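Translate structure to sequence.
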């Protein structure tokens, strides 16, 4: 999308962004759990899970369902859902491969199986939400990718052909049909596919936490794992409190590391996973007149086409959540609060918001935040094992992990339990993505790729020499 227009004025946009509360909309209310005590002293467990996001919580839940007697402990450095899991857009897609196009480019031979496993995974996720009476708001709808430049139309046609090839139902929309989904003067057409679920990810984290605890799983918040070491037939997990001085030691049989963009403990995961900060805004609830001005009665999940894209949706109380486009990497996998309030990024996407929906001038933003997306060079999770296969790690779903993290958790359990399943046979699981070079090359490669992506979008999608080279090696950079 072109840079922000003058409507409603860049000065005004700046004010609108500054006025928004720097907090995650999904968790900015009083319904959340009280943080549990950090781990302290020496204890035993059967399975220790490092990281309390979707991957960690789904690992715990599925482990306990499978073996109710298992002593499962989750150690979370901050509070459950602190990472990407409660900061995302809530698009819950069946894809395990960051979309069909990406999956097809890497694993064409496995794609039919991957699509089936993705559908089964999503169905399982819904079953769990029902059987544990989870409160998260959710609805099933289509996902529509909008063309906002002529060359996007060709890209969408190719997407349709690929969907047809795999028997996945999707349909092209002309300009009128696209604008009847949501009324934006920028839409030239669209590709409607689905179904997907749109849900409240913050509530889903809390619901999962409750379900895990209900089955006897133990969760320690503010317990940052600093290392895992083998000791005879056991593993020893060391943790330190992030709110005090308590330290803990857990001896256990098996460990799953689910720290995603943090890629810790240990250095191995960092070879494959980059933290990329993605920025999000939510508006105040739209009035009936504002809703009528855009239509959007199907409450679809929307995104625009192109390399740099926005994703957006309505919330249950009719706000618009608007995110994406400006993904930022910081030197040496830089992470932390200082990267979450980058107002240039929020202002950039706020300008794009009013370009897309100029009729909403006057609408205010209620919240602004950012979150770390763990990304790999294949845009899908990477899997690894250490300590004679007693520890498994999974990280890097890139921008599509809300659904896929449940599958990643399932695979991690297969790996630590030494089970050969059709999941562990997948090339996506067996082979690691191309490693990302260490610093200072890492920063240079990401910056070069980012510049090439911007050039490509400005140049009718032509890939250019740098992106073509990366394509040849099956390497990419995305949010
Ligand atoms: C802004 C944004 C928008 C997104 N939008 C979507 C979307 O709409 N749809 C979609 O499918 N995906 C989306 N994603 C991606 C999705 O949110 C993630 O893929 C998914 O949440 C990953 O879950 P996770 O549990 O693996 O990682 P996380 O949720 O990041 O959890 C990792 C946890 O590990 C903890 N941790 C780190 N180090 C340690 C340590 N040493 N010891 C203990 N704990 C530790 C962290 O505090 C964190 O809570 C988005 C992500 C972001 C950031």
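Result:
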């Amino acid at each position: 999308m072109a840079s922000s227009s003058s409507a409603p004025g860049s000065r005004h946009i700046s004010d609108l962004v500054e006025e928004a509360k720097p907090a995650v909309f999904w968790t900015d209310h009083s319904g959340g759990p009280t943080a549990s005590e950090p781990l302290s002293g020496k204890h035993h467990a059967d399975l220790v899970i490092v990281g309390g996001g979707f991957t960690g919580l789904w690992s715990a839940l599925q482990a306990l369902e499978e073996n109710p007697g298992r002593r499962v402990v989750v150690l979370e450095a901050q509070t459950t859902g602190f990472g990407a899991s409660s900061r995302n857009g809530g698009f819950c897609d069946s894809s395990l491969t960051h979309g069909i196009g990406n999956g097809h480019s890497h694993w064409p031979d496995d794609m039919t199986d991957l699509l089936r496993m993705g559908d089964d995974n999503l169905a399982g996720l819904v079953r769990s939400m029902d059987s544990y009476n989870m409160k998260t708001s959710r609805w099933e709808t289509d996902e529509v990718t909008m063309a906002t430049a002529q060359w996007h139309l060709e890209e969408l046609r190719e997407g349709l052909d690929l969907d047809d090839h795999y028997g996945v139902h999707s349909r092209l929309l002309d300009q009128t049909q696209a604008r009847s989904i949501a009324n934006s003067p920028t839409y030239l057409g669209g590709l409607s596919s689905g179904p997907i679920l749109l849900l409240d990810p913050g509530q889903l984290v809390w619901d999962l936490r409750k379900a895990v605890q209900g089955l006897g799983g133990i969760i320690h918040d503010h317990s940052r794992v600093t290392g895992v070491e083998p000791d005879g037939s056991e593993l020893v997990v060391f943790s330190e409190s992030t709110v005090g001085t308590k330290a803990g030691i857990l001896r256990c049989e098996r460990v799953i590391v689910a720290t995603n963009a943090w890629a810790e403990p240990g250095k191995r995961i960092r070879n494959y996973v980059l933290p990329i900060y993605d920025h999000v805004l939510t508006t105040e609830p739209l009035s009936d007149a504002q809703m009528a001005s855009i239509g959007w009665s199907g409450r679809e999940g929307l995104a625009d086409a192109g390399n740099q894209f926005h994703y957006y949706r309505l919330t249950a109380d009719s706000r618009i959540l608007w995110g994406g486009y400006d993904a930022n990497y910081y030197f040496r996998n830089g992470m932390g609060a200082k990267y979450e309030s980058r107002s240039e990024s929020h202002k950039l996407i706020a300008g794009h918001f009013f370009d897309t929906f100029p009729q909403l001038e006057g609408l205010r933003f209620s919240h602004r935040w950012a979150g770390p997306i763990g990304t790999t060079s294949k845009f899908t999770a990477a899997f690894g094992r250490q300590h004679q296969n007693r520890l498994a790690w999974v990280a890097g779903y890139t921008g599509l992990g809300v659904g896929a993290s449940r599958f990643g958790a399932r695979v991690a359990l297969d790996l630590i339990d030494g089970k050969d399943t059709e999941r562990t046979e997948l090339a996506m699981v067996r082979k690691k993505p191309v490693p990302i070079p260490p610093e200072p090359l890492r920063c240079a490669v990401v910056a070069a790729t980012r510049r090439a992506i911007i050039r490509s979008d400005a140049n009718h999608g032509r890939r250019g020499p740098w992106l073509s080279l990366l394509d040849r090696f099956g390497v990419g950079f995305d949010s």
